[in-house]
Design a protein that fits this description.
single chain; 25 strands; GMP Synthetase, Chain A, domain 3; Rossmann fold; globular
Length: 536
């Protein structure tokens, strides 16, 4: 069999050769920007020439501080196909963390959206290794900035040649992109994605039993492009010729709903808090979502009540998936097996509320504290271990934390899971979020999902609070539906839970809050809740 390196150049070439008329739609600062994959290809070639003019060398880290837009998409393929490494910066990091990851990665150039310049202005004295700053905007005038030297993206593109001979001699294990985890303790951890890993992961996204992405789709990625490459969808969509709709700077739920309707989006990707917001707005405005075949939900578990509501009210299913920064990210996809369609409706919803089946190409183990495999009975809990061609093998320049996280050639996820007889995996909790009360484990995720099925509850996050007798007890922080605020008592929630959970799972406290704090990628920030209500 001939040797053929798996390189991202294949993605770029295929989009240009086979789908030159397909659209990329981007919400820009002054309006909607539309162009074709043929236009996209020419601009990617121009951008590669710009990288050369800026002195970028093979292996250099080139950073992006940007929203989901067409310029960011151009960086996605121009940088790795040139031979450099695209480092997508999380724009919601604290300033100290942002400076840390830029310096730790040794970024040489930063491409930054115009409204994110203040984030860099505030830390410029700490960025000694950055040689150039390039501002991305569709406005003629650049905003004021203290950064230097600073360039205008569109001016650089306009003056560059639209011909570039991308190398075919890269090794497929060459780093193509990198992303840092949103660490809950210590500094963020860097994860490298190779050409080979991204290539194979993109193929997986097109499998019928994962996301089934294809040329027919119009994808709206709400998950940020700085977070695990928007779950890999920009690479896959470009390869398959899917229409892409990029929501731009600071999109709210109304913007998202309008784009879905106006662009006839067939697939959208986001975290559960996004879909909770969309459902709340849909109940008021009644959008026409008839074009949508699925709402991909990842980042954290989707409550069964949310899955049911989307089926019955929105008219399109939640497509449940699971992954991590270290896994590129897709690991599990929750799709019923063919014979499950004959099951009672409630049993089907119970099944697809799990994170699902391991996608082809990966291996997993679920082990107890002694390293022994747990039974696949849907009850015994263990830590999830993973390995495969798109699973990271180490943290970038971090041997100490790599040693424990990747011991024995497996990624130790710290996610505590059960596996049922069908092989469906259910995330019980992160190891740090499990509640151990009187020697028994309580899953905060399961308890949250049941509480959120209460008709008066919009969001719920469960944390452990100290207890002299039981060591830890659960407390639930809840956001009530807007029209029910001030009208729901502790007993209303706990009475609802009777018979649905074990008696000792009932929360000791119900804390009604106006808003549950979120992490930089939209997950419930339990660390902050613990600091506020549990003293830790």
């Amino acid at each position: 069999m001939m040797e053929y390196p798996l390189l991202l150049r294949s993605i770029l070439d295929r989009a240009n050769e086979l789908f030159p008329q397909k659209e990329v739609v981007s919400r820009d600062y002054t309006g909607i920007h539309r162009y074709t994959y043929a236009d996209y290809y020419r601009r990617v070639c121009r951008l590669a020439n710009v990288l050369r003019e800026l002195g970028v060398k093979k292996g250099d880290r080139v950073a992006s501080l940007a929203w989901n837009n067409h310029r960011h998409l151009e960086l996605y393929l121009a940088v790795p196909c040139y031979g450099a490494v695209l480092h997508t910066l999380n724009l919601r990091l604290f300033s100290e963390q942002l400076a840390y990851v830029i310096n730790h990665a040794e970024d040489s150039v930063i491409f930054v959206d115009e409204d994110l310049l203040p984030l860099l202005d505030g830390i410029k004295e700490k960025l000694g290794g950055v040689r150039h700053f390039v501002v991305m905007t569709d406005r003629r005038e650049l905003p004021a900035t203290s950064l230097s030297p600073v360039h205008a993206y569109e001016e650089l593109i306009a003056s560059a040649s639209d011909n570039f001979d991308f190398s075919r001699d890269l090794d497929e294990y060459t780093p193509a992109a990198m992303c840092y985890t949103t660490a809950t303790t210590g500094d963020p951890k860097g994860v490298i994605y190779t050409h080979r890993g991204l290539y194979l992961h993109s193929m997986c996204l097109g499998m019928a039993d994962s996301l089934a992405l294809s040329e027919e789709d119009t994808l709206l990625p709400i998950v940020p492009m700085f977070h695990v490459n928007a779950w890999g969808t920009p690479f896959a969509c470009t390869w398959f010729g899917s229409k892409q709709v990029l929501p731009g700077s600071r999109p709210d739920i109304k913007v998202i709903c309008d784009l879905i309707v106006e662009e006839k989006v067939s697939l959208a990707a986001g975290v559960p808090t996004v879909w909770m917001g969309l459902l709340a707005l849909h109940r008021k405005a009644r959008y026409d979502f008839s074009s949508v075949r699925g709402f991909v939900c990842g980042g954290s578990a989707a409550p069964k009540s949310l899955i049911q509501a989307f089926d019955k009210e929105v008219g399109a299913p939640i497509l449940h998936a699971y992954g991590m920064t270290e896994t590129t990210p897709l690991v599990f996809a929750s799709k019923p097996k063919s014979y499950m369609k004959d099951w009672p409706e409630d049993k089907i919803y119970d099944q697809i509320a799990k994170q699902g089946l391991l996608v082809p190409g990966l291996e997993m183990k679920v082990v107890d504290e002694e390293g022994r495999d747990v039974a696949w009975d849907g009850k015994q809990m263990g830590e999830l271990l993973l390995r495969g061609p798109w699973i990271a093998k180490e943290y970038y320049k971090d041997p100490e934390r790599s040693m424990s996280a990747f011991a024995g050639g497996w990624l130790h996820t710290s996610d505590i899971v059960t596996v049922d007889e069908e092989g469906f995996v259910n995330i019980a909790d992160r190891s740090k979020d499990l509640i151990k009360s009187g020697g028994e484990w309580i899953s905060s995720v399961d308890l949250e999902n049941i509480i959120m099925s209460h008709p008066d509850v919009q969001e719920a996050a469960v944390i452990a609070i100290p207890d002299e007798k039981w060591m830890e007890r659960p407390a639930a922080c809840v956001v009530l539906q807007e029209d029910r605020r001030g009208q729901v008592e502790y007993e209303d929630i706990t009475n609802f839970l009777q018979g649905k959970v074990a008696k000792w799972w009932l929360p000791d406290k119900i804390i009604v809050v106006d808003e549950i704090p979120k992490t930089s990628v939209g997950k419930f920030d339990k660390k902050m809740l613990r600091q506020r209500y549990a003293g830790g």
